[in-house]
Design brief:
Blueprint lengths: L9 E5 L13 E5 L3 E3 L5 E3 L6 H19 L3 E5 L10 H10 L2 E7 L5 H11 L2 H7 L2 E5 L14 H5 L2 E3 L24 E5 L7 H13 L7 E4 L6 H12 L4 E4 L5 H7 E6 L3 H9 L4 E3 L8 H11 L4 E2 L10
Parallel strand pairs: 1-2, 5-6, 6-7, 7-8, 9-10, 9-12, 10-11, 12-13, 13-14
Antiparallel strand pairs: 3-4
Helix pairs in contact: 1-2, 6-7
């Protein structure tokens, strides 16, 4: 966007602890807000601060509001949660609406089972914001594959605001001058990725068990644990991988697209970003979706399998390598 529109500046508000690891183009910058992580129970906890979640959310809300007030954007794009985490952006939305800022909600192709999403959004009281604050709703997918808002009330009114953008295409990033591929296997490899890694331990264990059971599998594997995997579990996996000549392991790669591009196939969980990378580079893939606390990954993987885009396995927690 900044290449196409020379007067455009983009400011990203993010709680990701790794956002500073990415290379941004000129006129793109970020403000880091305190991070939170979602537990398997569905509750949230601060990522690193020794504060309770309410204090962390108050700090996040204040930073978001004051940054938006000073930056004064022409367009404000909110990701996934219409009111932010526990309503943290509601005041900012109201302030920007009064200023005439165009407000856009961006949603993944799948959020959860539509009926469950309807109940969740009723509980969070987000419908007034959808109807009264937001000007547009962008869905990063195709209606032929899935409509995440199909069960919402006032659907016709919301439909007038909705635009299906298609899946967000990934491209190979420009390599820095000192880049090299020495960390990659020297032959066609199977890429195994957990996305962020916070709940990908089962997938890594399953793949390692397969190579332990049959060490001479045809292709080597490159495991990408993800930056949020538990440190002790990651260390244990690294020790197992070190004993397997055909298994390589890394924690994180900021230019992840190059790993996908050079892989012979992908084994992954069913997160949106990984799915887009698989489609963008036309890779054969096996998806092992997470099924709690949301059905998002399972719905995406099952629908993609129906269309012949990927194969899907469900994790029975046995991790039998056979």
């Amino acid at each position: 966007m900044v290449e196409r529109y020379r007067q455009l500046s983009i400011l990203i508000l993010s709680g990701s602890p790794i956002i500073g690891s990415f290379d941004f183009k000129t006129r793109v910058d970020f403000v880091r807000i305190p991070g939170v992580i979602k537990l398997r129970s569905g509750n949230y906890t601060p990522l690193s601060l020794h504060l309770d979640i309410e204090q962390t959310l108050a700090m996040r809300s204040s930073i978001i509001h004051h940054t938006a007030e000073i930056f004064d954007p022409h367009l404000f794009l909110v990701d996934k949660e219409p009111l932010g985490l526990r309503g943290e952006v509601e005041g900012t939305l109201e302030m920007l609406k009064d200023r005439g800022t165009r407000l856009v909600l961006g949603l993944r192709d799948v959020m959860d089972e539509p009926n469950l999403l309807r109940k969740e959004w009723q509980r969070k009281n987000v419908y007034p914001a959808l109807n009264e604050l937001y000007d547009e709703i962008w869905i990063y997918g195709l209606p032929e594959i899935f409509d995440p808002l199909s069960e919402l009330p006032s659907m016709q009114h919301l439909a007038d605001k909705m635009t299906f953008t298609g899946y967000l295409r990934r491209e190979l990033p420009q390599a820095p001058p000192d880049a090299n591929d020495s960390d990659l296997p020297g032959e066609p490899y199977l890429l195994v990725t957990t996305g962020g890694g916070g709940d990908g331990e089962g997938l890594i264990d399953w793949v390692l068990s397969a190579y332990e059971h049959v060490p001479d599998l045809p292709h080597p594997a490159l495991l990408v644990f993800g930056p949020f995997m538990n440190r002790d579990r990651r260390q244990a996996f690294q020790e197992r991988a070190a004993r397997l000549p055909k298994v390589h392991a890394i924690t994180f790669e900021s230019r992840f697209e190059r790993l996908v591009d050079q892989a012979i196939g992908v084994v992954a969980m069913g997160g949106y970003n990984t799915f887009c990378e698989i489609l963008s580079f036309d890779k054969r893939a096996v998806i092992v979706p997470r099924m709690r606390p949301r059905m998002e990954q399972y719905i995406r993987a099952a629908r993609a399998q129906e269309l012949g885009l990927v194969s899907m396995l469900t994790d029975d927690n046995q991790h039998d390598p056979r």
